[in-house]
Every structure is written in structure tokens, then in C-alpha cells.
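Something for you to look into today, if you have time. Could you write out one complete protein record for me, on any chain you like? The space below this message is yours for that.
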Amino acid sequence: MFVMELTYTAPIEAVEEELDAHIAWLDGYYAAGIFLASGRKVPRDGGMILAGGVSRAEIEKIASEDPFTLAGVCTYRITEFLATKTSSDLSTVRENPGA
């Protein structure tokens, strides 16, 4: 599983110009079952996405296709972790590293 942390590198006005395209990009990966949760950071200097079911290389490719990335208004910090305990709603992405 991955935590994808976005940090804005441009004024919020430039980010807002790409927001509709970014939301459409998010929707596509939600529909594919890869994105599990997302939202703005507080204060609003970026965002967070929780993702699973793909490899590190795939998640880096996905991040590179974000309209925010393509417009140069954010950078990504991607952290991989093993979700060994989850809520029942996320049981399908729970990982068992010893199995």
C-alpha cells in the first residue's frame, strides 16, 4: 500500500486551474480500485492519496500522469507500507508479509 503525499510548488491559483483535470484523474483510479482515499492537507499546501494493489513502479507512473504533476504545480513523496491491520472496510487490501 502507498501513501502519496502531494506538496504544491505553485500558487494555489495555478493549482485551482488544474483541479478539474486532477479530479477526473482521481476518479479514473478510484474506478480502477487503486485509490482508496484522498483529500487536501490542512493547511492547504497539498494533498494525500491512499492507494493499493499496484507495484512501486506502477504507483510512480500513476503519480507522473497526474495533471498537477504535468502542469508542474506539485511534487510527490511516495511512502510504501505493509497494511497488516485495517478496518473491515479495507480488509481486501490487508497484507500478510509472513505468508
